[in-house]
Write a structure and sequence with these properties.
The protein is mainly α. It has helices at residues 2-23, 27-51, 56-76, 83-105, 111-128, 130-144, 153-165, 168-180, 184-204, 207-224, 226-229, 235-256, 264-267, 273-291. It has one domain. It is globular.
């Protein structure tokens, strides 16, 4: 679970920093950030000196540079990210999200399965009312947060959750962590997700931070149940899940670009159809062998 906790913490920290960039650096935030950086530098310097893992002078230099960047960012963004920049960043993110989705979608080896998964998943999601539930939850969180968000919290949550959870790194990294105690994949994913969450939250707002809990639940469940899930999550199953998720990510990107709004929430169950399909197929083959 440690790798997943680090991943969720990186997303949460990056998202909160992105929200600060979006809304602006207050004096309290500036001071709190400086205190944190100074304390972190001091602690890491002591650890480095005691363990010889790294040189204290390197830590102090990096800490000083981080403080300078923090101060510069605070003065440059004291009134928040200007709308003109926020708009162009949103367009860039939207195009990037579409590209990521296309890349993931092309990993399929069975397009018919992807189509059927989207149809069945959409029917299930529509019947359950996932989209309405996410919107209601987002509206509630937005009211508690004081409102004023330009983009809904539910949009930020769903967008970030799909980007962080869909893909081989999330599944393979969690399986490696649970079965082998190898956290390298999740550590690498944590760095990527932390940086991505900063960019997403600077435009989509607080909803991105809530995706940390989705990652914690999703990857944590795979890690804890890795022994039981491993036989069902073969390479081809992961590829098809990634492809279905990629199409949903394309829909999110198009929504962000205001080309077409999709009810992505209602399509989320589609990601779970491929493992169910392959499990039932395997079971059917075994039954046929038994009967023959």
């Amino acid at each position: 679970m440690w790798g997943t906790i680090v991943n969720a913490a990186a997303i949460l920290g990056g998202a909160l920093l992105g929200v600060i960039i979006k809304k602006g650096f207050s004096k309290k935030v500036m001071l709190a950030g400086l205190v944190f950086l100074v304390l972190a530098t001091a602690v890491m310097s002591v650890i480095g000196a005691a363990s010889d893992i790294f040189q204290p002078i390197v830590v102090i230099t990096c800490g000083a540079l981080a403080c300078m960047v923090w101060i510069f960012s605070g003065f440059a963004l004291r009134n928040g990210l200007p709308e003109v920049y926020s708009s162009i960043i949103m367009q860039g993110i939207g195009l990037s999200v579409v590209t990521i989705g296309i890349s993931n979608a092309l990993k399929t080896q069975n397009m018919l399965l992807v189509i059927v998964s989207l149809i069945i998943g959409g029917i299930i999601g529509q019947a359950v009312g996932i989209e309405k539930g996410l919107d209601a939850l987002g509206d509630y969180a937005q009211r508690k947060a004081g409102g004023g968000e330009n983009s809904s919290i539910s949009q930020g949550f769903v967008t970030a959750s799909l980007i962080f959870c869909v893909g081989a790194m999330a599944i393979v990294g969690s399986l490696d962590a649970g079965m082998k105690g190898n956290y390298l994949t999740l550590y690498a994913k944590s760095m990527l997700d932390g940086i991505t969450s900063i960019v997403l939250a600077s435009t989509l707002g607080l909803g991105v931070a809530f995706s940390a809990f989705a990652v914690l639940f999703y990857q944590g469940a795979i890690t804890l149940a890795s022994g039981a899930l491993s036989p069902f999550l073969s390479d081809i199953v992961i590829s098809e899940m990634t492809a279905v998720g990629g199409i949903l990510i394309i829909g999110i990107g198009l929504s962000m670009l205001k080309i077409k709004n999709f009810n992505i929430g209602n399509l989320l169950p589609a990601i779970l159809i491929p493992p169910v399909y392959f499990s039932l197929t395997k079971l059917a083959v075994q039954l046929l062998h038994m009967l023959s």
